[in-house]
What we know:
Elements: E1 24-36, E2 40-47, E3 50-57, H1 62-68, E4 76-85, E5 99-110, H2 127-132, H3 134-139, H4 141-163, E6 167-168, E7 174-175, E8 186-188, E9 196-199, H5 204-212, E10 217-225, E11 237-246, H6 250-267, E12 279-281, H7 282-289, E13 302-304, H8 306-311, H9 315-323, E14 326-332, H10 341-352, E15 363-369, E16 372-375, H11 383-392, E17 400-406, H12 408-425, E18 436-440, E19 445-447, E20 453-455, E21 483-488, E22 491-498, H13 503-512, H14 517-530, E23 538-544, H15 545-553, H16 583-588
Parallel strand pairs: 3-5, 6-10, 12-18
Antiparallel strand pairs: 1-2, 1-4, 2-3, 4-5, 7-9, 8-9, 10-11, 11-23, 13-14, 14-17, 15-16, 15-17, 18-21, 19-20, 21-22, 22-23
Helix pairs in contact: 4-6, 4-15
This protein binds one RNA strand through strand 1, strand 2, strand 3, helix 2 and strand 22.
Amino acid sequence: xxxxxxxxxxxxxxxxxxxxxxxxxxxxxxxxxxxxxxxxxxxxxxxxxxxxxxxxxxxxxxxxxxxxxxxxxxxxxxxxxxxxxxxxxxxxxxxxxxxxxxxxxxxxxxxxxxxxxxxxxxxxxxxxxxxxxxxxxxxxxxxxxxxxxxxxxxxxxxxxxxxxxxxxxxxxxxxxxxxxxxxxxxxxxxxxxxxxxxxxxxxxxxxxxxxxxxxxxxxxxxxxxxxxxxxxxxxxxxxxxxxxxxxxxxxxxxxxxxxxxxxxxxxxxxxxxxxxxxxxxxxxxxxxxxxxxxxxxxxxxxxxxxxxxxxxxxxxxxxxxxxxxxxxxxxxxxxxxxxxxxxxxxxxxxxxxxxxxxxxxxxxxxxxxxxxxxxxxxxxxxxxxxxxxxxxxxxxxxxxxxxxxxxxxxxxxxxxxxxxxxxxxxxxxxxxxxxxxxxxxxxxxxxxxxxxxxxxxxxxxxxxxxxxxxxxxxxxxxxxxxxxxxxxxxxxxxxxxxxxxxxxxxxxxxxxxxxxxxxxxxxxxxxxxxxxxxxxxxxxxxxxxxxxxxxxxxxxxxxxxxxxxxxxxxxxxxxxxxxxxxxxxxxxxxxx
RNA sequence: GGGGUGGUAGUUAAGUCGGUUAUAACGCCGGCCUGUCACGCCGGAGGCCGCGGGUUCGAGUCCCGUCCACCCCGCCA
Length: 592
């Protein structure tokens, strides 16, 4: 090949500064923007490290200059030259803007056809096009930066967990199929025709077996596979920071994980609004925010108004309270001016358009004085009720108040959506702001569509000890679990639980779920058997690495922090997977 | 599984009430230009208007179907 040995590359394109002036360097990279002024040609040479301006002067080296005229965007070239200060011509936009390299040699290593979209930050190409040419998309500095953040985060995780006595262990991706939970991808076995592995939806059972094995503290940056519909923040395969700790209780896990997450954020020079992280009881989160993953970057807390509603003269609220609906209010401080009549009407319409169900409507009120309200329902309240409502919501003059009364689930959801929508409209958050919290003591069980009890987390989750007596009773739904979620800016970034290690409690939970002994043996027999041979108390956690990185990178979609993601229909636009296979292959696998 | 938005040049978009030659910017090709850094100036090429059907004298535009992408609900830890 007609270019210097790749070993002669002296540095990357982001390193040279004024102090390097006079040095002879060899740079290799991709041609970015070219500025051909006739007698002088400027080329932005780019590699992962950054961009350096290369100059070709006609009056100095006419042949070289002529060669440089043939350069096109994304050609890979090697140049030799001398670093010179740009003096008054320095560019402030580039980190290397104070210098340039006057080329003395140019070697075209490989030519590029015109690229389908420009290799630059802030590209306006469609996701579809970007995914089809993912290798070009990744070439954009922004994307390489995302991948760098990802790599550094993974390293920070390993460093932190290693320093805290964790051992990294790999567990199988090809596992036994177990119904329930997420849908599994199936892998046919050629050797055992007609039989299948499943791709692991998480290392859950293996990590508990590792505890039985005495691994004590395990972690893994593990790929998980779930055959569910993807979303912007969900992919059929994704990565978890998975860990499990022996001789641990909830407190042990929360402290260790909190330390890890703070370390991850600090490694990117980012910090949480409050640290140590606040802890919210699940019931408290639902009451104040209507969701189990509240965004705590802003206030706008909900207040349950059922007792007020039940006694007030406004029939809509009173009837709702009598009916057993949930009545919630929310105060938006100093927003009377912000919420024009038009905005309030739009918000009312927006509430009715929610896809969660037929929300009955939105009551809005503005506080004129400590005893005076205006708005959609102001006249329905007596003066005492008005004053009482203002006190209940802690409202001040010029606040706007919103009230929703509906079925509890709907009220929570509508008020949660409203809270986030208003925060967004009023721009209550900034991109560099992070608020994380723990949400603890989730309900142990919930009812599915068929009215059967199912685990909210998974069947090995330990019930809160004081609720054990409720198992199997009418009040089973009130049982809380030693389960916890980590939430950042309203995103659930991870969760875990204390596991059951006592066979009697485990049996009670299986009974409560209506899982027969045969079923248990079939699905989890090996785990239950393992638990007969001495099992330490243990607890664990799993965090969504992709979501964490996308938060750190300020990306809306985890697609932008995964090197080769799939579309929302699970298709790899670059390779076109999945594809059909031949009949011969199907036959060999015993599928025909 | 349900709902929504979109698909026009290589890319990103405009295209009115259905009307005769489908626009623009960037990119590409050719020319000029020695301090640009989104270089500038002049000229040029480039179209299965996602695909299939229908309505109409006439469809990028209206209707039906379909494919693809994205967003939301369901689902999913």
